[in-house]
Design brief:
alpha+beta; two-stranded parallel sheet; 2 helices; globular
Length: 58
């Protein structure tokens, strides 16, 4: 099989705000961001409520 790539802040499921790595298939690489997202530091600083939801839900 091929290796999959999932971006945690860009889930494929429309009802989720963040992807859930424990639900990804075995051959999947999970990354916190990509070139289409803000840097991890910028995301951390831009929205405290969203950051707290991330750690509560994931």
């Amino acid at each position: 099989g091929l290796v999959g790539l999932r971006i945690q802040r860009m889930p494929n499921e429309s009802d989720l705000e963040f992807g859930i790595p424990s639900q990804y298939s075995y051959m999947t690489v999970c990354a916190p961001s990509c070139h289409d997202c803000s840097t991890l530091r910028a995301w951390w600083e831009e929205d405290e409520e969203r950051r707290q939801r991330f750690f509560k839900n994931v």
